[in-house]
Amino acid sequence: MNLESYIRSTPDFPKPGIIFRDFTPMLANGPAFQEMIDRLKARHQDTPIDVVVGIEARGFILAAALAYALGAGTVLVRKEGKLPHATHRQEYLLEYGSNVLEIQQDAFQDGQRILIIDDVLATGGTVAATVEIIRAHFDVEIREIDFLMELDDLKGREKLADLPVHSVLHY
Ligand SMILES: O=P(O)(O)OC[C@H]1O[C@H](OP(=O)(O)OP(=O)(O)O)[C@H](O)[C@@H]1O
Ligand SMILES: Nc1ncnc2[nH]cnc12
Predict the structure, then answer these.
(1) What does this chain do (predicted)?
(2) Domains contained in the chain, number
(3) Mutation test of ligand 1: which of 23, 26, 58 has the most ligand atoms closer than 8 Å to its C-beta?
């Protein structure tokens, strides 16, 4: 299946100069969504994953589906002010702005093997902040970071130099 045909590219959204890579057509198509999750699942068949970490908001969709497929748990990394109970916070820069991420202080148990997932790797600011907040506060093993789409020209993976990174599609 050509998964790329289910990505819609919209120029000048949400700001002039940005080509927005939108995976909602893939989500709306059952076989395409299933194929995407199955391809990601296949990467982790032989390497046990305890928790899949999803980054708000689009990453949640992928994290929940993949975690279910792997029999793993899901942890949410959210934008500021959305998570109840005690949290850790981390500021970061976006391709089109800046923001704050939070994670709950009891999100993981020591030694858990985790996978981080998001829909798009652009500048890498969001995922680098996610790695930073996790490494600063938790004793877990980051097994891999997966993306549906990677915007190669922005070189976001250079911010993740010491970690295994995999993207299903490249632009
Ligand atoms: O690599 P970066 O330059 O950091 O950009 C990638 C991030 O940007 C988008 O999220 P956005 O903040 O737009 O939030 P959303 O998922 O809530 O729409 C995307 O889903 C990634 O999380
Ligand atoms: N070009 C882009 N398309 C979709 N999501 C993004 N997040 C950051 N850059 C993006």
Answers:
(1) Catalyzes a salvage reaction resulting in the formation of AMP, that is energically less costly than de novo synthesis.
(2) 1
(3) 58
Tell me, what's the ipTM? 0.98
Q: Which domain holds residue 62?
A: 47-170
Closest approach atom of ligand 2 to CA 19: 1
d(C-alpha 153, C-alpha 52), whole Å: 27
- Indicate which atom in ligand 1 lies nearest the CA of residue 92: 4
DSSP string, 48-82: --SEEEEETTHHHHHHHHHHHHHT-EEEEEEETT-
pTM (2 decimals)?
0.96
Peptide bond into 128 cis (omega under 30): no
- Check if the beta carbon of residue 64 is closer than 8 Å to that of residue 73: no
**Which pLDDT tens digit goes with each residue over 17-55?**
999 999 999 999 999 999 999 999 999 999 999 999 999
The neighbour count for residue 84, using CB atoms within 10 Å, is 6
33 within a domain of the structure (yes/no): no
Expressed in angstroms and rounded, the spacing between residue 94 Cα and the centre of ligand 2 is: 9
Q: Tell me the residue ranges of DSSP E strands in the chain.
A: 8-11, 19-22, 51-55, 73-79, 87-94, 97-104, 113-121, 141-150, 165-170
Q: Would you state the structure tokens that stand for residue 66, as one six-digit string?
A: 């993949």
